[in-house]
């Protein structure tokens, strides 16, 4: 077990709760595993038991995951008991269960939570298993880095999502435009495409972490750093998004739109471009077969950077049989398994050998998203511990600048002051 390191700087409330709640429990030893699976005694060295698997995949995402786990049982005889916990309750349930030593064998968690759970001793260091497995190099490096905390891997990336630029090809052709390569080109194109009840671009800038996505993408593409905003890159990000609204190229309604609303603006042809993820590609193709559209990598100034959204498979501190849990995790990550599962999940592959399949490499839209995975960003290490709080502050700065409550320069300075306080600087 890893003791909880002392921290002199302020942490988000959820992390502090985790630290206090489990501090007295970190010396608990893993119990011996029972016998898993069917077959003869020779075929099953483990004995009688079930792998418990907690996740937060609700809605249309539940069935594909549970179908995958049922397939594992059919192929191996090993029973898997999935439990769906609503996303908003997931972290709290994990922390409460840690107090009673009742964590599952496997927890599928957002990569944002890897540092928090690793620091609190709730999930296991998988260094030995991963070294013996020998497949780490098949994963995109930036994706793999999201499961590493203090130089040790605490999970295996499961699926990924990333953002790119969706655009209406018919509108672009009519306007004589090519997909923008820089953010200035994007602004110019959005202004030209706006009019007749249609906006040039839409994005989600809603309150909270979700609405921070376009801001952090624009900031990073201009050479900015996650926790440094009172500089040219930060001020330009806030000023450009304000300019898009002021010019009429983007609706101020973006401050209230979630990503589903942005998708609706695009499919209803009320916006010619959107910044959105890959999760609705298959849905758009099925529901709007007449819509003429495609996807291109995000514009860049210094780099075409996207925000990565990913989940990881972890083995918890209380796993009764980590060996059986590890067998399930590695089975789930096989290319043949992932290429059957990912299309049903509307997610992107985390492995390069999976991405080489025709399903991804020969599809123009998915190929653009795969290209973005090569320059995907997610908060790592200590930045991940503070990510939710900082991303929330980034959205608030964007809202203040875009709404005109303050200037972009003042918003960037205020944001930096908040970040410095969070970081204890």
Strand content: 5-15%
Q: Overall mean pLDDT score?
A: 88
CATH level-four homologous superfamily name of the largest domain: Periplasmic binding protein-like II
Largest sheet: 8 strands, mixed
The total strand number stands at 10
Q: Can you tell me the number of structural domains?
A: 2
CATH-defined fold name of the largest domain: D-Maltodextrin-Binding Protein, domain 2
Which stretches are low in confidence, meaning pLDDT under 50 for 5 or more residues running?
1-32, 34-48
The H/E string reads: HEHEHEHHHEEEHHHHHEHEEHHHHHEHHH
- Shape by Cα distribution: globular
Task: Return the CATH architecture of the largest domain.
Answer: 3-Layer(aba) Sandwich
First-to-last CA distance: 30 Å
Report the CATH C-level class of the largest domain: Alpha Beta
Helical percentage: 40-55%
Number of helices: 20
Task: Work out the radius of gyration.
Answer: 23 Å
Q: Could you walk me through the main structural features you see in this protein, from its secondary elements to its overall organization?
A:
This protein has helices spanning 13-22, 62-76, 87-99, 114-119, 127-133, 141-145, 169-175, 183-193, 213-221, 232-246, 259-267, 281-287, 322-332, 335-345, 352-355, 358-361, 364-373, 381-385, 387-403, 408-423, and strands at residues 50-55, 79-84, 106-110, 148-149, 152-153, 156-168, 273-277, 293-296, 306-315, 376-377. Strands 1, 2, 3, 6, 7, 8, 9 and 10 form an eight-stranded mixed sheet that branches. The chain has a two-stranded antiparallel ribbon with strand order 4-5. With 425 residues, the protein is α/β, with parallel strands linked by helices. It is 45% helix and 13% strand. α10 (232-246) crosses α19 (387-403) and α10 packs across α20. The chain folds into two domains: 13-160 and 308-376, Periplasmic binding protein-like II (D-Maltodextrin-Binding Protein, domain 2, 3-Layer(aba) Sandwich), CATH 3.40.190; 161-307 and 381-423, Periplasmic binding protein-like II (D-Maltodextrin-Binding Protein, domain 2, 3-Layer(aba) Sandwich), CATH 3.40.190.10. It has 20 helices and ten strands.
